[in-house]
Design brief:
Layout (H helix, E strand, L loop, with lengths): L12 E6 L4 H11 L5 E7 L2 E5 L2 E2 L4 E8 L2 E8 L17 E7 L3 H11 L2 E8 L3 E7 L7 E6 L4 H14 L6 E4 L1
Organism: Croceicoccus marinus
Protein name: VOC family protein
Keywords: Plasmid
């Protein structure tokens, strides 16, 4: 059991995220070599009221998400070069880029991060009532932690993805969403 008041105590890691140099090749690797899928592609994402290092940013990115049993695999593709956790200092292309934890209270996350001396790299809104924070607890590139307070529809979306993975027969490996 993680020590109370720590980043680990905020919740289990539910995602491993990668920032591949070649997004399409990464999709092919994960679906064909690893057998993970189907991936759901969400394109041209913009966080509401997004801030990078405390300053407004209009970063835009696309993600492909699939489930490997209980863990999400997320592949990220920056769609512009605006300041973000996927560009500049934090743009790591070898290995894992960040992990993600779903949380109940984003303000509790903010307090735990402050107490840990972490740097909030990006924060913003997801949909009407969801919130997200990406933070560097001190590891630097490759060690970013994402915290998501899911909004309306989030749990259902991820449940659909997980069910699709459980039933996946290898066909239609990449499916575009909205």
């Amino acid at each position: 059991m993680p020590k109370a008041g720590t980043i680990a105590a905020l919740g289990p890691v539910i995602q491993q995220a990668y920032l591949p140099r070649d997004f399409d090749a990464a999709l092919e690797y994960w679906t064909e070599t690893m057998g993970v899928g189907p991936f759901f592609l969400l394109e041209n994402i913009r966080l509401g009221e997004m801030k990078y290092m405390g300053e407004p940013s209009n970063a835009e990115f696309s993600v492909a998400i699939a489930y490997w049993n209980d863990i999400q695999i997320e592949l990220v593709r920056p769609d512009n070069d605006a300041p973000a956790h996927y560009t500049g200092k934090y743009a790591i292309h070898e290995g894992m880029h960040h992990t993600c934890q779903f949380v109940e209270d984003i303000e509790e996350v903010r307090k735990v991060l402050q107490d840990a001396g972490a740097t909030i790299v990006v924060e913003g809104n997801v949909g009407e009532d969801g919130r997200v924070i990406y933070a560097d607890p001190g590891y630097g590139p490759g060690g970013i932690c994402e915290f998501v307070q899911l909004g309306a529809g989030g749990p259902e979306l991820f449940a659909m993805m997980k069910q699709a993975a459980a039933e996946w027969d290898g066909s239609d490996p990449v499916r575009k969403l909205g």
